Amino acid sequence: MLGEYRIQGRRASEIAASVESGVGSGALEPGQTLPPLRELAAELGVNPNTVAAAYRVLRERGVIATDGRRGSRVRARPASTPRHSLGVEAPPGVRDVCSGNPDPVLLPRIDAVFAAAVRGDGGRSGLYGEEPVDPEFERLARAALDADGVPAGALAVTSGSLDAVERVLGAHLRPGDGVAVEDPGWGNVLDLVPALGLRPMAMAVDDEGPLPEALERVLTAGARAVIVTDRAQNPTGAAITGERARLLRAVLARFPAALVIEDDHGHGIVDLPLHPLAGATERWAFVRSTAKAYGPDLRVAVLTGDPLTLDRVTGRQRLGPGWVSRIAQRAVAGLWASGAVDPRAVAASYGSRRDALVRALAERGVVAHGRSGMNVWVPVPDETAAVAGLLHAGWAVATGARYRLGTGPGIRVTVSGLTAADIVPLADAVAAALTPGRPRRYG
Predict the structure, then answer these.
(1) pTM for the whole thing?
(2) Which of 84, 91, 246, 429 is 20 to 30 A from 67, comparing alpha carbons?
(3) Which residue has the higher pLDDT, 58 or 317?
């Protein structure tokens, strides 16, 4: 059953750690069946309840899944083997179009705003007991949310979008609860959900966002929460349209107890209007990060939501990190106030590269998706062959396995590092990688 690997331990924590170590090292492979409780208990000389407790811990950590009489198995992608391990590192001489980073040329300089932020506090750092949200940051963030139709509510600041998503899920859900996630969707979310002991439930998307029938299906099946990307969806570039938002809100209205979490990480790099779902249910949260427009290392995101959700999140935050640096908040407020980033110009820059690549691929008979943001998603018949072929041709793309649950294979291409001269060679290479024996065309 487990090959040469032997689970060890006398206590539940030791048994769980032994299984997790085997998963992490690769000795226990995804899908591998674990011994029945009584069988492993007899082998280890412990009470079956001890093994049951160990398996429960592993389920809550997202390492294994239990399916009734079929027993317990290592998850297809356990939390201890995150999806970034499926990534491709660009070797010397190979162009990196897989990292997902913004174009550094489009990011503003931050030295002056940080200096101003420090000077604004008399050159001193803040102290304990001060308000966790800087007043000017809050004013500007709230004004932007109001302009986009996000319902009024208190604000919190988190260390990026994923931090906010984790805090909101933790505020309402318990291990075993189902969470509707986009498929394909952001790999970190697909890792985070099982790592919290929650059950990811795949929700299909197209260029206009989650499909209403897919949302209804997972909610009917018991999903207690839904995570949605409003614009610049990773990896497909989907953006929710006004009509799609109307249909999704109609579905959500029939499930008022569902928790809806919206991620608007594309704010500042897209020129498509926001069509929020916030307020369609009793419990909701809306998060907007600064990473893509102002720099990933700022680690600043705005979070708003219904009163109970915000109260739980901020209360728990006070018991942990307490707050996100107010100096960083003031620096971001300075960037907003100065107009250091022109969203229309940034969106046009990414859009010209993204649209050119999608167009060039279409001319070569290759279907691709990229309605907004900095990524293009290309469905492929064989991910391994496509990634290997492109590496051979000098391009490192992201394997689709990082971003999908049940949807078909694909590859993700980040356009932020491309120039106009790169489009044709890259499109030729993708087409050749998808059609073995097809001659490559350059120029």
Answers:
(1) 0.83
(2) 84
(3) 317
